[in-house]
Amino acid sequence: MAPKKKGKGRGTPIVDGLAPEDMNKEQVEGHIARIREELDREREERNYFQLERDKIHTFWEITRRQLEEKKAELRNKDREMEEAEERHQVEIKVYKQKVKHLLYEHQNNLTEMKAEGTVAMKLAQKEHRTQEGALRKDMRALKVELKEQELASEVVVKNLRLKHTEEITRMRNDFERQVREIEAKYDKKMKMLRDELDLRRKTEIHEVEERKNGQISTLMQRHEEAFTDMKNYYNDITLNNLALITSLKEQMEDMRKKEEHLEKEMQEVSSQNRRLAEPLTKAREEMNEMRRKLGDHRRDKQILVCTKARLKVTEKDLKSLQWEHEVLEQRFVQVQRERDELYGKFTAAILDVQQKTGLRNLVLERKLQALSAAVEKKELQLNEVLAASNLDPAALTLVSRKLEDVLESKNSTIKDLQYELARVCKVRGVHLPSGHVPTQDHPCGLWPVACPRPGDPLGACLLHLWSHPAAPPLLHRTWPLG
Q1: Which of 61, 216, 376, 463 is the most buried (most CB within 10 A)?
Q2: Whether this model's pTM surpasses 0.85
Q3: Which helix (H) or strand (E) holds 318?
Q4: How far apart, in Å, are the Cα atoms of 139 and each of 136, 256, 268, 402?
Q5: Residues 1, 478: contact at Cβ < 8 Å?
Q6: What average pLDDT does this structure show over 215-241?
Q7: Which pLDDT tens digit goes with each residue over 251-280?
Q8: Longest CA pairwise span in the chain (Å)
Q9: What is the gyration radius of the CA atoms in the chain, in angstroms?
């Protein structure tokens, strides 16, 4: 910038090698015409620079709008990802609740089945004990009768040896009658027991069918299995009763054989009865012990069958839950894969926007630097022309004031752009550097900012227009007055 002139006390400027006083009218008019041409050319260049400035401003507006659009797309993507995450969490909660309900329902069904099985087993045990007591009572009565008959036989053998044949016949008739009575009695009891068990079984089946009417097919299958087990159990009881009757018949046959043996060996009846009493007692005790063990074995077998059935049902439920767990894991892996794909696409879009914005801002910076250099050059040329010309001070002052107004308008526009850029950077979260002044590398106040990492927010390579308060305003000059 040329220094200001201190006043009119300085020497008269030289124009084309002549002082203004030595120039004639034609030379002055020619000089004024050249100055006017220079002024017109400067005006054309000023208009050209204004057009270039408008183009730069338009490019900046377009870039800003594109940046806002990308930010809106980014916010939409974030919102979509948050909604997808919320939906995923809701689905996980729903599946967890379903699993809890299934476990609770399974536990309730298992508890009900255990309670029903326990009640049925207790009732069966009670009935079995009642029947066993009745049978034992009958056996004791038979033993008493047999003992009485043996004593009567001994008395008859000792006292009435001559009436042996008649007594044997009577005893045979009595034994046959007792056998018939016992058979009739046990046949009647077996029939009553069968009718009672059939009636009870029908009643229980009816109650179970009414109670299980609303359950699903799996529970119906379990009911059929339980009904089959119950039927087998009652069949076993019936078979046991038949076996007991058969054993009693065999015992009666043995008694007949013993009576025949008494007929053949009447002399040794007493001694044989004494010898056979103890082995018979031991044999009966062993038979009772074996029956008791057989009953325990059957009960253990029944319990084992029930336990295996429950184990199969539990394994089936466990397999179903494992299958549902695998399905949930596969869906979770799929959702994670979709989330990773969205993250990859989002990162690629951000990097693309960063590269495009960085290149555009770099082009704008270089254009602005070139325009600033051209303005400085034209300013120096204009100062030289004004210093070399000998114009009217009033006209020179008017021209200088107009140029200063134009430059002030441009400086005001540049400051507005700087303020707008700083506001946009603040909104985007990018901080301008502080504590630095423009250097020779950046005389126009353009400050290059390094590109952040791809993961940083709003990471775009930008060149920020920044002017330090200590720096003089751009394009601000004080024009000398003649």
Answers
A1: 463
A2: no
A3: helix 269-388
A4: 5, 18, 27, 142
A5: yes
A6: 73
A7: 778 877 776 766 676 666 566 666 777 777
A8: 202
A9: 61
Q: Rounded to whole angstroms, how far apart are CA atoms 446 and 450?
A: 13
Closest among 482, 273, 270 to 385, alpha carbons compared: 482
Query: How many other CB atoms are found less than 10 A from the CB of residue 280?
Result: 14
Q: Which residues contact 339 (CB under 8 A, 6 or more apart)?
A: 81, 84, 85
Backbone angles phi, psi at 448, to 5 degrees: -75, 135
Asked if 480 contacts 5 with a C-beta cutoff of 8 angstroms, the reply is yes
Q: Where are the alpha helices (DSSP H) in 160-216?
A: 164-211
User: Which residues pair with residue 446 across a beta bridge?
Assistant: 465
Partner residues linked to 463 by β-bridges:
448
Contact 357, 67 (CB under 8 A): yes
Whether 124 and 233 have beta carbons less than 8 Å apart is answered as: yes
C-alpha distances in Å from residue 308, one per residue of 24, 125, 219, 225: 134, 21, 16, 12
Q: How far is CA 392 from the centre of its chain?
A: 88
d(CA 161, CA 156): 7
pLDDT above 80 (res 230): no
